[in-house]
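Hi there,

I know you've been waiting on this one. I reran it after we fixed the sequence typo, so this is the corrected version. Both the input and the resulting structure follow.
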Amino acid sequence: MALTRRQKEVLDFIWDFVQQNGYSPSFHEIATGLELQSLATVHKHISILEKKGYLERGANRSRSIELSSKYLDASGRRPAAAAYEIPLAGRIAAGSPVEAFAQNDSLGFSDFLGDKGTYALQVRGDSMIDDHIMSGDYVLVARAGEAKDGDVVVALVDGAESTLKRFYREPNDMVRLQPANSEMQPIVVPAASVEIQGRVLAVLRKY
């Protein structure tokens, strides 16, 4: 089915937004970006594009709009290559000194960047310092709607505030979001009030 000019603009806006931010836009961001007056208009466009096979949406997840392979094939666009590599020059001791040696190897980041669902967040606060996640660090997050006990997750609590914590299930359908800071108390809330938005893959720190 042919696309209208506005439908193509919606698709291209979503593409550009994801490339710049690493995650999908909300309906409000689409409306603002395209100067649409109504969220209902955005919803109509998204629903039609989903029926035409250009978009996919995850059930019961915010920011779940994803461009399908049909759009990529039709537009000729492809995500930027994720096979970034840097030389791995060897290993160095952080305890007793050991002999350093050169080697011809490389460290690839495709495991972290090859999935279009991976995004980055900058950490604010000290709740995870005992897990060596400091304020100002960046965490790479794999978009996910579920987690296992002990995972470090991005969790949305009561639909209002996102937090970085370790996830644990508790009796009576409760969830404990555990900080890694002995001076802070865990957040214990009903499981229904917690939405898992992603699992932490790695921590990056700039000096």
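Quick highlight: The two ends are 52 Å apart (CA to CA).

Best,
R. S.
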